Amino acid sequence: MASCCSLSFTVVSSKPKRPSSSPTSSSFQLPFTSHLPISKSSSIYSNHTLLQTQCKKIPSPNGPTFLVVGSVKKQEPLRVMISGAPASGKGTQCELITKKYDLVHIAAGDLLRAEIAADTENGRRAKEYMDKGQLVPDEIVVMMVKERLMRPDSQEKGWLLDGYPRSLSQAVALKEFGVQPDLFILLEVPEETLVDRVVGRRLDPVTGKIYHLKYSPPETEEIAARLTQRFDDTEEKVKLRLHTHHQNVESVLSMYKDITVQVDGSVSKEEVFAQIDGALTQLLEARKIWNRNVIECRKNQ
Fold this sequence. Notes:
Layout: E1 7-9, E2 25-27, E3 32-34, E4 54-59, E5 65-69, E6 79-84, H1 90-101, E7 104-107, H2 108-117, H3 121-131, H4 138-149, H5 152-157, E8 159-162, H6 168-176, E9 183-188, H7 191-199, E10 201-203, E11 210-212, H8 221-226, H9 235-256, E12 260-264, H10 269-299
Parallel strand pairs: 6-8, 6-9, 7-8, 9-12
Antiparallel strand pairs: 1-3, 2-4, 4-5, 10-11
Helix pairs in contact: 1-10, 2-3, 2-4, 4-6, 6-9, 7-9
């Protein structure tokens, strides 16, 4: 299920109409329309962004009502989550996003391995479960992710959370910690395309480079001869993984449905990134528009 990734933002007048009723506090709202499933309830209207600045109406000593603008916060960095099925191209898009927007790339799997290697408390707890062949409990991984998101670089530069949360319980836990993205990017690729991409993947054990027999074949016969296939890169096993992914992502989307951008991941990587880049650019532009309107609101007190 893919959809267009164009966004449109409607600029409101810098002078909101004054109601005839007695002066009350009211939000200065920016109408938000989109071809994508994003609404005014999205996090770009949350209390944690500059977009929620209030214009408060109070009685003037001289009689007429005028506008007093609340404090305008510094524009916050982007907070993005991205999800996609195996072989959806998520890794490639994460590289492109972090390169252009200079976000801190956070992947739960990499984070888990780093915590274990650093012998942190969370890492030791996780290793106990892994040594027993058990899954690491959500509360341990969520805590790792939360602590990484709270580090100064993530707070200052913004972050891209890769492939996490994977379940509703993880999403709820992050929300309870106050972690809320501005945008949830979902890469949509038809199942037959995903199966084709996975089954054709091969690994060069010498260089670690990933090839695809059809889309990115090895440069020489020598390399081709030493390529290996992951044990779970078979059609049967990838379909099981895809089934699990679809179940999980549906539950997660219930938490982020108002800020989800569905991107057609079946096209070239450049075209996929163009869709994502367009959504992120429009989001940043919406913030700028809102800030300008707030400033104009202040001028017209």
